[in-house]
Design a protein that fits this description.
Largest sheet of chain A: 4 strands, mixed
Distance between the termini of chain A: 50 Å
Oligomer: heterodimer
Shape of chain B: flat
Number of helices of chain B: 5
Structural class of chain A: alpha+beta
Helix content of chain A: 25-40%
Low-confidence stretches of chain A: 1-23
Largest sheet of chain B: 10 strands, mixed
Structural class of chain B: mainly beta
Strand order of the largest sheet of chain A: 2-10-9-6
Number of strands of chain A: 29
Distance between the termini of chain B: 44 Å
Strand content of chain B: over 45%
Mean pLDDT of chain B: 90
Low-confidence stretches of chain B: 1-49
C-alpha cells in the first residue's frame, strides 16, 4: 500500500500548486459520523476523505487506519464497522497524521431479524443480475425460470420462487441444496454462469431467507423511501482517481441501513470513470461522470469530476459575449480544455443561415455580409434571419417531425392545416408555454383547431403518455408501461399516473378525414399489473388534486409551465441548443435522466432561467445562443480540445440535415426541385410531411415520423448517401442540366475563373484559395471540354465535406 | 331494335378511355366518378357489364355560381351529354328559364339557358338540374346573393398580377393546381370589411385558405376553416390604415381545376351565424336577435313565420342598416319555444321547463352549461333532439339526464356526425334534470342550441342511395333503400309519393331483420321521354298498430356528391328525382319453326323448339309461355336457360284430338338491367293422322 504521504505528495506536486508543499492532508473527515446498527446483520462502510489546504478532496478510505474504542461493540474490518454487541463505540480513523471519529451505536444485537423478501432476497437477486433483461428478467424468463424485471413485481416473484414448479427451487430443510443457490454457484449447470460465491453477501441473504421458510414480507413492513449518497458531488484532482461511494437507505420506520454492497452502480460515461459492484469509482481520464445508484426502484446519483493538469495548457481568457460563454468557458477552464478560436465570417454566415433558416445564403447575401465592416454585423444578421419567413418554415418542420405530421395519421388536409398552424406559431413567436398548452389541451375539430391533431398522432392514452413525457418532460418512459423502468426512477405506477391525464381524451370521426377530439367527463386508468385505479400523477410532485369532471390536461399544463417545473423549460432550451450546436447539453436532447446528466448543469439551468424570465420566448433563447462566442467558435481543433465531444470547446461538424441539404444543392446548381402538391419554387424545408418528399431526402435521414423521438431523424453518414452524391440521379441531373448555374454563367459570357469563384461562393460561402482556384482552372482547361470540366468542378464541390457538412 | 340508337360505347367504357379534363386533373373527382360508376354497376342485377341505358346529362360547371334577385341572365352549364338539353329545373321559387338555342357547332358539353330570377327571390342556396331527352342531371347548387358578381381574370397568381377589385363584390373563380389566386383592393383607415369564401356550401371540393396581406406582404389575417361553416373560411378585418391590400386564396392542399370553384364575398355584410332563438312560433311574427362572430350592432328582426314543413328552414337575409350585402341565416319553424334563464350552471339553478315544444339555450361564456328541470310521469317517454349545426350553429351538444337525487340516467353525444338525440322512458314519476353542455366546452355569441322535446321518435330511418335516377321510357328504376332500425325489427313497407299516378312498385318490402331492399318502380308509358318527376319514398313498419310514415332521405348521397357538404338545403334531401330517357332497347328476339309443326294424332305430345337471338350481350334466362293453344292442349313450363339460345316446349293434347291446324304464339320474357323485355314468335301446330 502506498503511504498517505506518497499520495499527498504526488497529488500536490502534480495537481494543485496551492498545496505543493503539503505532504499530508490538513484535515480528514469520516462518513457517516454517527450511525446506528440495529441488527446483527447490518454493518456500515466508513468513508474517509482527506482535504488539502485549498479544500481539494481525496478519498483515503483504503489508506486509513481504523480503531474501535470498544471491540465488544464494534469491530472494523476492511473499513467496515461490524456489530459485536449492544452498546456504543467510537471508531477513530487515522491517516496522513490526521484523525477523525465516527460514533457507532449497536442495538438489538440479540435479535435475529428475518430476511426481508423485498429488501433482502429480491435485492440480492437484482444485485447478482439474476432478474436483468438478458436473464430471468426477460418476458419469457430463461430455462423455465422467470422473474420480474429488476424485481418490479414482488407478487409475481413470490409465486415464482416459492410456489411455482412445486416449490422445487427452494429447500427449506436443506437450504444449501436449493436450486436457487446451486445454480448460480455453478454446482449445477447454469446458462448464466457463476453469479455468486459462498462468501458473498447475496449468498448469505438467499440462504437465510430459504432457511427461514421463504417468508414474504408483512404488508406493514418498512419500505425504503430514499437513498443518501456520500459523496453526492465531488471534484477530484489527479493523481486522485478513485472514490468510494457510500449508499445509505432510509426506511419508512426511520431506520437507516448501509446498502452499499447490495446497491447497483453504473456510470454515465465509462470513458471517464467506471464503477465496480462495490461502489468504487475509478477514473482513467479527466471529465465528469454521474454514478447512478439503484436500490430496487429507488435511485440517486453521485456526480464526480476528475481533473488533471494538462501539459501546455494556458487559459487564454477569451472574452464572453453573454452568460452562455460564462458557463461554457468556466467548464472548459475547469477541465483544462482549450476553446477554439472564433470562426471566420465566411464560416459564420454559412453556419448561421443553415442553422436559422435551413438555407445557404445567396451569393449576394454572402458578399453583403462579408463586405459589412460593422462590429455588430453578426448580431444584425442573426436578428435579420430570425425575422425571415424561412425561419418559421424551417423550425416548424422540426416540430412537424416531433408531432408526427403524416397523411396516414391525420389525413392529407389535416397535415397541411397543422403545418400551417405550426408555421404561424413559430412566425409569431408563440411563447412556448402557450404553444404547449395549445397542443396538450387541444380539442375540437382537427381541421378547425389543428393542434387537436396532437391527439390524432398520439391516438391512445399510452401514446399520449409517452409522447408528452418525451416531448415536454424529456422522459423516455416507454419501458415503464410494462414494468418499472430498468434504468430510471420511473415506475409502472408513474407511467399510468401520467396516463390518467389523458385517459379521458376521446376521438370521434366527422368523416373519413376529419376527427373531433373531446374530453370525457369521467373515466379512470387502471394499472394493469396491480389492478389499481391510478390518480393523475406529476413527476417529482406526486398525485394531482383535480376536480372530478375537470379536464385533467389543464392541471398537467398548469404544472408543466410553472417556473419551478424542473423539466419543461430545460427540455426546450436543451432542444434549441441541440439544434444549433449539434449536440444537446443533455444528449440525446429528449433523454433527461439521472444517468444522463447535462454536460453543464449551470449552463442548462441558466438558459432555462433566462427562458422563463423572458416568457418562454424561444426566439430570445435562440438569439442568446447564436450571439454567444460559444456558438461562433471555429470547428477547427487542436491537441488541447480535439477529444472534447460534449463541452462545446469548438463547433461540431455534422452532416447538414436532409431538407436543407437538398435545398443547398438546388441553390448551388440554381435548379429548384418540384414537389408534387406544392407550388413551383417550394423548398424541401417547406414540406409539410415526408409524404411529399423524394428518395434523396429519405436517404439523408428524413424521418418517417413514426415516433416522437428526435432520434428518428438520422444524422449518420452511410453508403447510400455517398452513392446518391457520387452518381445519384438528382446530382447527376442538376450537374448536367442545360439550365444550371454554371451554364447560365457561361451563357452570360463569364470566364472560367469567374464561374469557379461563383460556385465556391454559392456552395461554401467563400472564395477559393489560390491553390483551389489553380487546381479547378487547371482541370477545366486540361479536360479539353470546358463544359465537362466545369461539370466536374461543380460535382466536386457538391461532394466536398465542406459543402455536405455544417461546420 | 335500338330505339336510342345506342351503338355508342357504354358509359363505363367512355369513362375509362376518355376521362374528362377535370377528372384527369383531380384525383378526388376521379374517385367520385369511380364511386358513381361502382354504384351504377352495383345496381345492375345482371352479371353482364354492358350498359344499354341512355347517357343522362351530368353537370360539372354552372356559371355563374351566384345570381342576384331580379336578374335576367344567361346561365351556362357545362358537363357531359348536354347536347339534348331541354329544360332547367330549380327549386328557386318563381324562377323561370328558357333554353337558348344551341349554335350549330355546339358541343354536347355545354348549354345555355336564360334565367329570370324573381325580384322577391329569397337569398340563399338553391338546387338546379338540367333535363335532356336522355334523363336528368346531377344536382348543382346556386346562390342567390345581393352582392355584385365579377369573374376572376386569367393569370392572377402572384401579388404583382393580382386582380383588382372594387368593394363590395363577389368574385367567382376557381383555384389552379399548385398555385395561388391573388386579389387586390383598396381600404380606408378604420374600414370594416367582411370576407367570406362560399365554396363547400356550393358543393365545391375546395378547402380554402385565405391570407390578408398588407403592402409589405405581411400577413394580417390567416383564415382557414370556420367553426360554423367548416371548409369555408370567413373573417372580419378593420383596417388600421388606408392603403392597398391583397388577398391570397388557395386550396389547403394546393389542389385546383375548374371544379375547385369559389365565390369570394367581400363587403360590409355581417358574419351572422344563427338567430336567437333559433325558431319562431308558426303563424306568428317572431322577434329574433341575430348572433354571429365579430358582429357590430344589429337591431332585432321581426320575422313572420309561415306554416310549412317543420324540417325546412326559413332563410333570413341579414344586413347592416347601411350595408350593401347580406348574409343568410336559417330560422326554424317552431311552436312552444322555451328559453333558458341564466344563471343555470348549477343543478339548483335549473330552468324549469315542460316536456314539449323546444328548449333554446346558449353557451356565452367559457364553462357555461345549462341545467333544466321538469316533471315526468312513470313510463313517460321523452325524446330530445338537438338542432345546432344543421341550422348553422357550431355547437356540439352533450346531454345528460339526472334524477332528483343526482343519479345520472342517460348521456348522449351526437351519433356519427348527426345531431345528439336522447331517448328515455322514465321508470317513475318525479322531477328530473337535464344538463346541456357543449361537448368541447366552447363558448361564444353563436354557440346556440335548440332541443326539440317529443313524445316519440321515428322507429327507423330510411335513406335512398341517390338523389336522382334515370329510367327508360316505360321502364323500371331501381332505388336501393336502406334503413337504420331504432324500434322495429319487422318488415317495412315502402311506397312512393308525389306525382306518381300509374307507377308500379315491386320489391317494396324491407324484410324483417334486413336493412335494405332495391325498390323497383315501373314508370307508366305516359311519362314522356325528356320529362322528370320528383318523388318521395315513404316507409311504414308493418307490425306497428299505428304505423308512422317515415320519409327516405338522400342526405348521405348528396353529401358524397357535394364533396362532403354536411348539411345541403333540407328540402333537397327529401325528394329524389327521376328523369325519363328513351326506350330501353330490345335485348333478345325469339325465332320459331317456319314450317308447321306436325302433331300426330294419339301420340299425345309434341316438342316445339324455340330459338332466341340474344343481343347486347344479354345472357340471362328467358321465360317462355305459349298462347293461343287449341282447347285441350297444354304447354309445359319452359325457359331458355342462361347462356343458351334454344329451348324445347312440350305440348300435350288428348289422344282423340281432331285433325286441325292451329296458330300459336310463343312469348318470351326476361329482365335485363332491371328492365323488362319480351319477344314473341308465331308457330303453327298441325294435327296429322297417326302412322
Amino acid at each position: 500500500m502506498r503511504t498517505v504521504a506518497q499520495i499527498f505528495a504526488a497529488w500536490c506536486v502534480v495537481g494543485v500548486v496551492a498545496v505543493a508543499d503539503a505532504a499530508d492532508p490538513v484535515r480528514i473527515e469520516v462518513m457517516p459520523k454517527v450511525f446506528k446498527l440495529d441488527s446483527p446483520e447490518r454493518d456500515v462502510h466508513l468513508i474517509v476523505t482527506g482535504y488539502a489546504a485549498n479544500g481539494d478532496a481525496v478519498d483515503l478510505t483504503r489508506d486509513a487506519m481504523f480503531a474501535s474504542s470498544n471491540h465488544e461493540v464494534v469491530a472494523v474490518e476492511n473499513g467496515v464497522a461490524v456489530p459485536r454487541g449492544n452498546g456504543k463505540a467510537v471508531v477513530v480513523v487515522t491517516v496522513g497524521g490526521q484523525h477523525a471519529e465516527a460514533s457507532i451505536e449497536v442495538a438489538h444485537f440479540e435479535r435475529r431479524e428475518p430476511v426481508s423478501f423485498r429488501y433482502g432476497t429480491l435485492v440480492a437477486l437484482t444485485k447478482q443480475g439474476c432478474n436483468q433483461g438478458a436473464c430471468h428478467g426477460s418476458p419469457s424468463g430463461k430455462g423455465g425460470f422467470r422473474l420480474s424485471l429488476r424485481a418490479y413485481d414482488p407478487v409475481l416473484d413470490t409465486e415464482t420462487l416459492v410456489r411455482e414448479t412445486f416449490n422445487r427451487r427452494v429447500n427449506t430443510v436443506e437450504p444449501e441444496t436449493s436450486l436457487l443457490l446451486r445454480k448460480p454457484l455453478m454446482e449445477l449447470a447454469h446458462g448464466g454462469g457463476r453469479r455468486i460465491t459462498k462468501t458473498s453477501a447475496s449468498y448469505a441473504i438467499l440462504r437465510d431467507w430459504i432457511a427461514q421458510g421463504c417468508q414474504p414480507d408483512f404488508d406493514d413492513a418498512p419500505h425504503c423511501v430514499r437513498l443518501e449518497l456520500y459523496p453526492r458531488q465531488r471534484v477530484l484532482h489527479r493523481p486522485a482517481k478513485s472514490q468510494q461511494v457510500l449508499v445509505l437507505a432510509h426506511f419508512s420506520d426511520g431506520s437507516v441501513r448501509d446498502v452499499t454492497d447490495l446497491a447497483q452502480f453504473s456510470s454515465s460515461d465509462e470513458a471517464v470513470a467506471t464503477v465496480d459492484e462495490h461502489g468504487l469509482v475509478t477514473s482513467e481520464t479527466r471529465g465528469e461522470a454521474a454514478i447512478l445508484v439503484r436500490y430496487l426502484e429507488i435511485m440517486d446519483t453521485a456526480y464526480l469530476t476528475f481533473l488533471e493538469q494538462i501539459e501546455g495548457f494556458r487559459w487564454p481568457s477569451p472574452p464572453e459575449n453573454n452568460f452562455v460563454d460564462k458557463h461554457v468557458l468556466a467548464k472548459l477552464h475547469l477541465l483544462q480544455i482549450m476553446p477554439a478560436d472564433l470562426c471566420t465570417d465566411e464560416e459564420f454566415v454559412r453556419r448561421v443561415y443553415l442553422d436559422v433558416i435551413g438555407m445557404l445564403p445567396t451569393i449576394g447575401e454572402t458578399a453583403s455580409f462579408l463586405a459589412d465592416t460593422s462590429p455588430q454585423k453578426r448580431t444584425k444578421l442573426i436578428d435579420t434571419l430570425l425575422e425571415r419567413p424561412e425561419y418559421a418554415e424551417y423550425w416548424a418542420q422540426k416540430w412537424a417531425d416531433l408531432l408526427r405530421l403524416r397523411d396516414a395519421k391525420m389525413s392529407a388536409a389535416g397535415v397541411r392545416k397543422f403545418h400551417d398552424w405550426l408555421v404561424r406559431a413559430v412566425a409569431t413567436n408563440m411563447p412556448y408555454d402557450r404553444f404547449a398548452r395549445a397542443l396538450l389541451t387541444a380539442d375540437g375539430h382537427t381541421y378547425q383547431n389543428p393542434p387537436a391533431n396532437y391527439y390524432r398522432a398520439a391516438a391512445d392514452t399510452l401514446d399520449c403518455t409517452e409522447t408528452t413525457s418525451q416531448l415536454f418532460l424529456g422522459m423516455r418512459i416507454q419501458c415503464a408501461k410494462c414494468h418499472n423502468h430498468p434504468f430510471e426512477r420511473w415506475t409502472q405506477d408513474n407511467y399510468y399516473g401520467i396516463g390518467a391525464f389523458f385517459n379521458r381524451v376521446q376521438r370521434k370521426k366527422v368523416n373519413t378525414d376529419e376527427m373531433i377530439v373531446w374530453v370525457s367527463r369521467s373515466g379512470e386508468v387502471t394499472q394493469p399489473r396491480t389492478g389499481r385505479q391510478m390518480q393523475p400523477w406529476l413527476p417529482l410532485a406526486g398525485d394531482a388534486k383535480i376536480a372530478a369532471d375537470a379536464d385533467r390536461r389543464q392541471a398537467l399544463v398548469d404544472w408543466l409551465v410553472r417556473a419551478d417545473n424542473p423539466f419543461f423549460a430545460r427540455v426546450e432550451v436543451n432542444r434549441l441548443w441541440g439544434y444549433v450546436m449539434g449536440r444537446g447539453i443533455v444528449d440525446p436532447v429528449d433523454d433527461f435522466r439521472d444517468s444522463n446528466p447535462p454536460s453543464s448543469v449551470e449552463l442548462l439551468d441558466a438558459l432555462a432561467a433566462d427562458f422563463i424570465a423572458h416568457g418562454f420566448d424561444r426566439k430570445h433563447t435562440l438569439r442568446t445562443v447564436l450571439n454567444s462566442r460559444t456558438y461562433q467558435l471555429s470547428s477547427r481543433t487542436g491537441p488541447l480540445n480535439q477529444d472534447d465531444q460534449k463541452y462545446f470547446s469548438h463547433a461540431r461538424t455534422r452532416l447538414i440535415p436532409a431538407e436543407p441539404l437538398l435545398d443547398a444543392i438546388c441553390e448551388v446548381t440554381g435548379l429548384p426541385e418540384k414537389y408534387a402538391g406544392l407550388p413551383e419554387g417550394s423548398r424541401a424545408t417547406q414540406l409539410p410531411s415526408p409524404d411529399m418528399g423524394c428518395d434523396f431526402l429519405k436517404v439523408f435521414g428524413q424521418p418517417a415520423r413514426e415516433t416522437a423521438c428526435q432520434c428518428e431523424r438520422s444524422s449518420d453518414s452511410n453508403l447510400s448517401q455517398a452513392l446518391q452524391m457520387i452518381n445519384g440521379p438528382l446530382i447527376h441531373g442538376k450537374v448536367r442540366s442545360e439550365h444550371n448555374r454554371f451554364r447560365q454563367l457561361m451563357a452570360e459570357g463569364k470566364n472560367d475563373e469567374e464561374i469557379v469563384r461563383q460556385l465556391y461562393l454559392a456552395a461554401l460561402c467563400r472564395q477559393p484559395s489560390a491553390a483551389e482556384l489553380r487546381a479547378a482552372l487547371g482541370h477545366v482547361t486540361g479536360s479539353g471540354d470546358r463544359v465537362r470540366g466545369l461539370e466536374d468542378v461543380c460535382w466536386a464541390l457538391l461532394n466536398a465535406n465542406e459543402f455536405l457538412f455544417q461546420h | 331494335m335500338h330505339l336510342c340508337g345506342c351503338q355508342k360505347p357504354p358509359p363505363a367504357a367512355l369513362a375509362a378511355s376518355k376521362p374528362s379534363p377535370t377528372a384527369r386533373q383531380d384525383r378526388r373527382t376521379r374517385a367520385l366518378v369511380m364511386n358513381r360508376l361502382a354504384a351504377t354497376a352495383a345496381l345492375m342485377v345482371s352479371s353482364c357489364a354492358v350498359a344499354l341505358r341512355a347517357e343522362p346529362p351530368s353537370l360539372t360547371q354552372v356559371t355563374p355560381m351566384g345570381v342576384t334577385p331580379g336578374a335576367k341572365l344567361t346561365v351556362s352549364v357545362g358537363g357531359e351529354n348536354l347536347g339534348d338539353t331541354k329544360s332547367l329545373w330549380t327549386n328557386l321559387p318563381g324562377a323561370k328559364s328558357t333554353l337558348k338555342p344551341p349554335k350549330e357547332d355546339a358541343k354536347p358539353t355545354a348549354a345555355s339557358l336564360e334565367l329570370q330570377v324573381p325580384e322577391a327571390a329569397p337569398l340563399g342556396v338553391y338546387g338546379v338540374r338540367v333535363a335532356t331527352g336522355q334523363g336528368v342531371s346531377n344536382l348543382w347548387l346556386l346562390m342567390v346573393d345581393d352582392l355584385p358578381t365579377v369573374r376572376e381574370v386569367k393569370q392572377h397568381n402572384t401579388r404583382e398580377t393580382a386582380q383588382e377589385l372594387q368593394l363590395p363584390v363577389a368574385v367567382e373563380g376557381s383555384t389552379e393546381t399548385e398555385a395561388y389566386d391573388f386579389y387586390k383592393f383598396h381600404a380606408a383607415a378604420g374600414q370594416r370589411v367582411s370576407f367570406e369564401v362560399v365554396a363547400r356550401r356550393l358543393g365545391s371540393p375546395l378547402d380554402s385558405v385565405v391570407r390578408l396581406l398588407d403592402e409589405q406582404g405581411h400577413e394580417l389575417v390567416f383564415s382557414d376553416d370556420d367553426p360554423a361553416l367548416g371548409a369555408d373560411g370567413r373573417f372580419v378585418h378593420r383596417f388600421a390604415a388606408e392603403g392597398d391590400y391583397w388577398l391570397e386564396l388557395r386550396d389547403v392542399r394546393y389542389q385546383g381545376g375548374s371544379g375547385y370553384r369559389y365565390r369570394l364575398r367581400i363587403g360590409d355584410f355581417p358574419l351572422a351565424t344563427v338567430t336567437w332563438p333559433m325558431a319562431g312560433c308558426v303563424n306568428s311574427t317572431a322577434r329574433l336577435v341575430v348572433a354571429g362572430r365579430e358582429l357590430d350592432k344589429l337591431p332585432p328582426v321581426d320575422l313572420p313565420i309561415a306554416s310549412g314543413s317543420a324540417d325546412e328552414t326559413i332563410p333570413l337575409a341579414v344586413r347592416y342598416p347601411k350595408g350593401h350585402g347580406s348574409t343568410v341565416v336559417q330560422v326554424l319553424r317552431g311552436g312552444l319555444e322555451q328559453v333558458e334563464f341564466e344563471p343555470n350552471d348549477q343543478a339548483e339553478q335549473a330552468t324549469a321547463i315542460e316536456l314539449r315544444g323546444a328548449i333554446n339555450g346558449r353557451f356565452e361564456k367559457p364553462g357555461d352549461r345549462d341545467y333544466y328541470t321538469f316533471e315526468a310521469d312513470a313510463k313517460q317517454r321523452m325524446v330530445l333532439i338537438g338542432q345546432t349545426r344543421q341550422v348553422g350553429a357550431p355547437t356540439d351538444l352533450y346531454l345528460r339526464l339526472y334524477d332528483d337525487k343526482g343519479n345520472q340516467l342517460a348521456e348522449v353525444d351526437d351519433d356519427a356526425g348527426e345531431e345528439a338525440a336522447l331517448d328515455h322512458t322514465f321508470a317513475a314519476k318525479g322531477t328530473y334534470r337535464l344538463l346541456v353542455e357543449d361537448l368541447l366546452n366552447t363558448a361564444g355569441p353563436d354557440r346556440l342550441y335548440r332541443i326539440e322535446c317529443r313524445a316519440s321518435r321515428e322507429p327507423f330511418t330510411l335513406a335512398a342511395d341517390a338523389d336522382r335516377y334515370n329510367a327508360p321510357h316505360g321502364g323500371v328504376l331501381a332505388v336501393k333503400v336502406t334503413t337504420k332500425r331504432r324500434a322495429t325489427k319487422g318488415p317495412i313497407e315502402l311506397q312512393v309519393a308525389g306525382d306518381t299516378a300509374g307507377w308500379k312498385v315491386s320489391k317494396e318490402i324491407i324484410p324483417a331483420g334486413k336493412n335494405d331492399t332495391t325498390l323497383l318502380i315501373e314508370l307508366p308509358r305516359d311519362l314522356a321521354q325528356g320529362t322528370y318527376r320528383s318523388f318521395t319514398i315513404v316507409g311504414r313498419a308493418k307490425d306497428d298498430k299505428e304505423p308512422q310514415a317515415v320519409a327516405a332521405t338522400c342526405l348521405v348521397a348528396l353529401r358524397a356528391q357535394l364533396n362532403g357538404l354536411a348539411y345541403p338545403p333540407a328540402e333537397l334531401c327529401k325528394e329524389v328525382m327521376v328523369g325519363v330517357g328513351p326506350e330501353f332497347p330490345a335485348f333478345f328476339a325469339l325465332e320459331g319453326p317456319k314450317a308447321a309443326v306436325p302433331f300426330a294424332q294419339r301420340s299425345g305430345k309434341v316438342e316445339l323448339v324455340v330459338k332466341a337471338k340474344r343481343m347486347n350481350k344479354f345472357d340471362d334466362a328467358i321465360t317462355l309461355a305459349v298462347e293461343g293453344l287449341p282447347e285441350g292442349f297444354k304447354a309445359g313450363k319452359a325457359e331458355i336457360a342462361k347462356g343458351k339460345t334454344e329451348a324445347t316446349i312440350e305440348i300435350t293434347a288428348p289422344k282423340n284430338v281432331a285433325l286441325m291446324k292451329s296458330k300459336v304464339r310463343v312469348v318470351g320474357s326476361a329482365a335485363f338491367q332491371n328492365q323488362p323485355g319480351s319477344s314473341a314468335v308465331d308457330a303453327t301446330l298441325e294435327v296429322v293422322p297417326a302412322k
